[in-house]
Amino acid sequence: MATTTGASVQLIRNATILLDVGDTTFLVDPMFTPQGEMPTVTDNPEVPDSLTTANQDRNPLVPLPDVDLTYDAVVVTHRHPDHWDEAAREELDAEVPLFCQPEESDAFTDEGFTDVRPVDDETSFEGVTIHRTPGRHGHGELAEGMGPVSGFVFEGDESVYVAGDTIWYEPVEETLDQFEPDMVVLNGGEAQFDQGEPITMGVEDINAVRDTTNAMVVVVHMEAINHCLLTREELREGTEDVHVPEDGELVTLEN
User: Fold this and answer.
1) For residue 174, how far is the Cα from the chain centroid?
2) Of all helices (H) and strands (E), which one includes residue 205?
3) Residue 88's pLDDT is what?
4) pLDDT tens, position by position, 122-137
5) Using CA atoms, how far apart are residues 35 and 64, in angstroms rounded to an integer?
6) Using CB atoms within 10 A as the burial measure, which of 21, 106, 223, 252 is most buried?
7) Taking a C-beta distance cutoff of 8 angstroms, is the pair 69, 90 a contact?
8) Residue 160, exposed/middle/buried by CB under 10 A (0-12, 13-18, 19+)?
9) In the prediction, which pLDDT does 89 show?
10) Are 42 and 192 in contact (CB under 8 A)?
């Protein structure tokens, strides 16, 4: 359960976070595989053979930090293996409330989870309203092959927008305008292949978010997967008033 007075996000690794809203804690996009025990992104059978990336280090690139994983529910933005892996499937309690995209609910049920809650538009859980929001995982035809992906807005006493794997595009701006969140969590890293444009946010995207909202901006999804080439140092140098936590670090919304 949450122990802080304001909404907070604790980065575990990559896109895996513990999100506290009020007295409720959500585990988002669990990836628990030990360092180096997953193939490179381009070795994934779901990735077209035509896509390559210069960095061929095995994933994840870094170990899990020593963090107390206590939570009330799980949220999965999409089922790419750096957001939902075999280790998470094995470790999580099959009865945990699990929120997801409608398109992927059957897959979780088939894996034995008994409390799968697909979010069409919005739902509620322990005093928190959960809204599903759109995302675009790249540009052009590549984005079509990467979808569907979602983000989520969590509304309690304070509101947090977890954008998920998306680039900056009009629906992200519309989500910021509609919900006016107190905190925004972005997936950075500027994940990319040798072919095409980046499929997650880079410096330009994040600055566009920063220019659009008064919310606290927190950027995760950094330095953990082999095709995420933008470093934390480069992101910090290219942005202002943006939080770029290290693995295990807690960022709390100031009241």
Assistant:
1) 19
2) helix 203-212
3) 98
4) 999 999 999 999 999 9
5) 7
6) 21
7) no
8) buried
9) 98
10) no
| Number of Cα atoms under 13 Å in the Cβ half of residue 89 | 14
**Residue range 154-207, pLDDT digits in tens:** 999 999 999 999 999 999 999 999 999 999 999 999 999 988 899 999 999 999
pLDDT at 23: 94
Residue in the block written with tokens 């990319």:
192
Write out the DSSP string of 131-154: EEEE---SSHHHHHHH---EEEEE
Is the confidence at residue 3, as pLDDT, over 60? Answer: no
24-27, long-range: CB < 8 A, 24+ apart: 24/72, 24/73, 24/125, 24/126, 24/127, 24/128, 24/156, 25/1, 25/70, 25/71, 25/72, 25/73, 26/71, 26/72, 26/73, 26/74, 26/75, 26/99, 26/154, 27/69, 27/71, 27/73, 27/74, 27/75
d(CA 30, CA 18): 9
Cα separation, 142 vs 138, in Å, equals: 6
pLDDT over threshold 60, residue 4 = no
**Cα atoms in the 13 Å half-sphere on the side-chain side of 238:** 18
pLDDT per position as a tens digit, 37-82? 999 988 877 777 788 887 889 999 999 999 999 999 999 999 999 9
Among residues 116, 66, 52, 67, which one has the least CA distance to residue 89? Answer: 116
What is the predicted pLDDT for the residue at 48? 75
* Cis peptide preceding 171, ω within 30 of 0: no
Q: Angle between the 170-179 and 203-212 helix axes, to the nearest 10 degrees?
A: 30
